Here is the input.
Amino acid sequence: MRWASVALPAVAAVATVLAVVLYWPFRLDLSITRDSTRTRATARVSPWPFHASVPFYVRDVPPPTIPAARWSVADLPETFERLRRMARVITSAASLGHKLIELTWHSSIGTGDAASTAIACGELWAIKSIVAAWMCSRWGRGRKAPSVSVAPVFGPARFCTSFHVVLETALATLLRDARLRSAAWSLAGTLRKRRANEQAAGLEY
Here is the structure.
């Protein structure tokens, strides 16, 4: 029939386009940096052949329009709780099927006291070791060895960190990954709740 001769190529074309969209490899580039006052999170996507990337998420906490208080020793428990939560999200989402391209995570921390600074460094190393081990065991070691460091700061209280990971995957792999979807929804819920709390406190975005 005439309609069939038209419909079949159209269906085949749609199926081909859908397959290309689902299985075309891309790289997800996530960067989180923090100085003594603010945290910035950025995410970029780079489709194969990976010559260009497109940013799709940028956020400063607190926003640049809000005066930021410097990090202090009183913030240490909350800082480590956030890092542990981040480690749990990563390890729960570290399913097979993705490929690690690059991992760097450098931090410096000081509490103003040599003994507690050493303890804080040990705690930070423990969290980083868990994250790096899970990523490498599930996603491979990447094109170059992961670069991870913790530097003690002996002086005023200070915490700075720079986390950068590049992951190669495909949309079909992400859609099939139930653990990653669950972790992403959990993280998104946490971010929405935190943003609502900040806005309720008068922090405008």
